[in-house]
Each structure stands twice: as C-alpha cells, then as structure tokens.
Amino acid sequence: MAGFAFFGLQGLWQESMDTLALTLSAVLVALLFAIPLGVWAGLSDRFNRIITPFLDFMQTMPTFVYLAPLTLIFLIGPASAVIATVIYAAPPAIRITAHGIRSVPETTVEAADSMGSTRWQSLVKVLLPMAKRTVVMGVNQTIMAALAMVTIAALIDAPGLGKTVMQALQSLDVGTAFNAGLAIVVMAIVLDRVTTASSTRAEQARNSGGRFIKWRRPLLGPGAVGVVVLIYLSHTYLWAAQFPGDGTTGTHIANAADSVTTWAQDNLSGITNAFRDAITNGLLNPFQSLLTDSPWWLVGAALVGIGVVVGGWRSGITTAVCVGLLVGTGVWSDAMTTLASTVVATVLVMVLGIAFGVWMGRSTMVDRLLRPTLDAAQVMPPFVYLVPFLALFGATRFTAIVAAVVYAVPVAIKITADGVRAVPETTVEAATAAGCNTWQIITKVQLPMARSALALATNQGLIYVLSMVVVGGLVGAGALGYDVVAGFSQGELYGKGLAAGLAIVLLGVMFDRITQAAARRTRA
C-alpha cells in the first residue's frame, strides 16, 4: 500500500500502472513455460545440454537487438515490448530453477525412490519443495529482468516509466530520470516482497495446522466483490480513476537529485578524475593494448588454450568456433576492446559478490538489511546508472565499467549468499567442533561446497555485464556497444550493428562454456 501510494505522490501513477501491466503480462507468460523448462533441465542432463546454448543466446543478446526484428513483425507498441520482455526475462527463471532442482541432495531423492515414490511423486513431494527457495529467487530474477527490459522497450514506444526515463536522459535531466527510476525500484521491491512473503506465509500456514487458511478463504469472496465494485467505479467516474494530488513529492525528489549532482560535479571532480585515470591507465589500457595490438591468431590461440586448460577439450572446441566466428564478423578489434572491459568488470563483480555474498549467507540480519538494497540496485534501469556516473567520471570506458559492475553485482551477491546458506549447518558445526576458525570455515567448507552457486553467480554476473555493453556505448564505451547503437540508429550501419550484436553473443557463449565446464570438472 505504501509503495503504490508513493507512485501517486510522485505524480507517476498512470506511468507506473502502464509499467506494472507490461511487466506482469510478460512475467506471467515467461513463467508459464520457464519453470517447466527449468524443471526439465534440472532432471535431464541431455535436455540441459541442449537448452543451455539457447539460454546463452537469449540472455546475452543485447536488448537493442530484440527490438528491431520484433517491430518488423508486431509493429511498434506494447505488443512488441511484451514479447521482447518475455524473451529477455525467461532465461533467469529457467537457469535458476534447474539449479535448484540439481542442488537437491541425491541421497534425499534416493531415499524417496527406495520408499516406492513414482517419478511424479518425487518431483512434487521432494524436489520442488526442497528447491522452493531457489525457484522463488528465479521468479524474482525474472521480475527484475522484466522491469529492466520494459524500460529499454520505451525505444519502441512502450508506455510507462521507461518512456519518462528515456525522455529525461535525452536531455540529461538527472532529477526526472532519478524520480522515474525510483518508482521502478519501489515497484520491484513491492513485487519482490509479495512473492517472497507469499512463500513464507504458505509455510507458516502448513506449520500452524491450517488455521491461516481457514480465515483466509472466507475473505476471498467478499474481497472479489469489492474489487469488481472498485473496477466499476473507476471506469464510471473520473474521480475514482485518478490519484488525488499534484505529485509535488516527485518534484522535490527531482530537485534534490539535481542539487546532489551539481554538488558532486563542483566538489568531487578532482577525486573522481584521479580514480578514473588510475584504473584506466594502470589496468584497462595495458590489458586492452595487449588484446588489440597482438596478432588475432595469437590471441585466439591463447583463448582456446585457456578454454582447454580450464574447461576441457569440449570447451576448447567451443572457444575455437567462437573465435573463428568473431574473426568472420569483421569486428575483431572492437570485440577485443569489449573483451578487456568485460573481463575487468566481471572480476570486480565476483570480488564484490563473494565478499558480500558470504557476509549475507552467514548472517540473517545482514541479509535482511542488504537484500532490499540489492533489489533496488538490480532493477534500477541501466540507463539511470549512466547519468550519475557520467556526471562523476565523464564520457569514458570507465563510466560504462562502473555502471556495469553496479548493475551486475546484486545478482552475484544474492546467488552466492543462497549458496553459502544452503551449506548444511551440521557440516559447519562439525568444522567448528574440529577447531576451525571463521576464515577456515569460509574458505575450506562453505565456499567449496557452494562452488556450483559460485559458477552460476559468475555466469549471471558476466551476462549482466554484457547486457550493459550496448548501454555503455552511449557514454563513451565505444567498441561493440557503440556499433550496435549506431547500427540501429543509422540505416546505413545496420549490418555492422547486427555483426556487433552477434560478436557480443559469441563472447558470452564462449565465457559461459568455459565457466560451466570448469564448474563440472571441479565437482568431478
């Protein structure tokens, strides 16, 4: 109630409802096939191997690339926006659901089989209940991805908060963009709390012997009647359809954001410029020069070698194919520039993800304090990140990297935290009884036992970083991101834009294969 009232006080009620309608439509359609596919992938190794490349392609394809072909088929408008959002939002639910099913201990499944459970009974009574927390996280991730995509879909005239953000960014109106972005954040938190709380209350109802269900069900009938009456009033009377007030709270928020931005530009430019130059000159430029100035065949051979050593010969073959296709796209130099930025950003994401994820996984209080902030950071529209960092660091590659790290690190933290929390308490207690200190428990017990979650966090972090590549092209990141933006804004560069989009996908598939293979070899 507080969240929805806040939309009206911001003066963004209609825009918020448009965004909510688009998001829920896309999420419902996505979950309708994403969860069954995730369960199938969790049960079948063969199907998991088949569907994973398609998930890689869907999730690493730049969001801009979805929009062009869809508008040719479904025209510009909400329909194309919903379809693009479904495609973009479904992969996290499939991946995380499959991960949850596969994380159920084999001994538990074997015990159910030994008691005569059928395959369906094992799924419904054992696998899904034990993977429930992970599946709910997959639903949350789908909602977050849908909200992010709905914002970008404003480029094809999708209504809602995304259009407000885009119009504000075109004029670098930080205040208006922040106000609309804050509304999206509040909406994400509301949806996240509802989905998480519904799962918790269902468990409480079962534990209480059904007392909660007894008083809840009689209220459904009167509640449904009340909803019908309210819908009738809102379609009959104007006063019932409009939020009262003039949205002065949103004006105050926008003015405050503008004041903070101006102060930062006037007082922090020396510090931020020094930090930017140190990272760029000390790390980014040397690494980029190494990749772009070396012969393509030498860099390709090095990448294939890394694939073989880290992931095995199959990973090496996949890497070789990706390298060959990258050379064929004709954007090898831009691909290496993007590769340098992506590697640096992903390393930073995992450093932060492991540090804060372990902290959250070991402390319930820290989890309760940080999770709403992570939800807020994760669903803030990618474009909104660029405005404050552009004010702090200028139009450079560093701006895009910082925005990518901030955008990608929440999902890595949450997956790592869930992996650490899933380590059996008895194992931790046994390590403590054996005299292990906190550092030894983390490094010798919890992180090794959560390595599958770490692999998933690395994949998701990398994919989120790559999803920011195109957006970063708007603020000086250059390379493949700029090629995609230019290709879809200038007709004569359309082909190069498609080639750059394909190159981004190839980079994502290559790294995904390597990390997945490395995780499997570690478990073996």
The averaged pLDDT comes out at: 80
| Helicity range | over 70%
User: What composes the largest sheet?
Assistant: none
Q: How far is the N terminus from the C terminus?
A: 49 Å
Strand content: under 5%
Uncertain residue ranges: none
**Strand and helix order:** HHHHHHHHHHHHHHHHHHHHHHHHHH
Number of helices: 26
Instruction: Kindly name the structural category.
Output: mainly alpha
Shape, per Cα inertia axes: globular
Rg from C-alpha positions? Answer: 24 Å
Query: How many β-strand stretches?
Result: 0
Protein architecture, described:
With 524 residues, the protein is mostly helical. It is built from 26 helices and no strands. Helix 4 crosses helix 5 (78-103), helix 8 (132-152) packs antiparallel against helix 10 and helix 20 (397-421) packs antiparallel against helix 23 (451-467). The relative contact order is 0.11.
Summarize the structure in short.
Helices cover 87% and strands 0% of the residues. It has 26 helices and no strands.
Task: Looking at this protein, list some descriptive labels.
single chain; 524 residues; mainly alpha; 26 helices; globular
Q: Can you lay out the helices and strands and say which pair or pack?
A:
Blueprint: H1 2-9, H2 13-43, H3 45-60, H4 63-74, H5 78-103, H6 106-114, H7 119-130, H8 132-152, H9 161-170, H10 174-207, H11 211-236, H12 238-241, H13 248-267, H14 269-293, H15 296-311, H16 313-329, H17 332-362, H18 364-379, H19 382-393, H20 397-421, H21 425-433, H22 438-449, H23 451-467, H24 469-472, H25 479-489, H26 494-523
Helix pairs in contact: 1-10, 2-3, 2-5, 2-8, 3-5, 3-26, 4-5, 5-8, 6-7, 8-10, 9-10, 10-13, 10-18, 14-17, 15-16, 15-26, 16-26, 17-18, 17-20, 17-23, 17-26, 18-20, 19-20, 20-23, 21-22, 23-26, 25-26
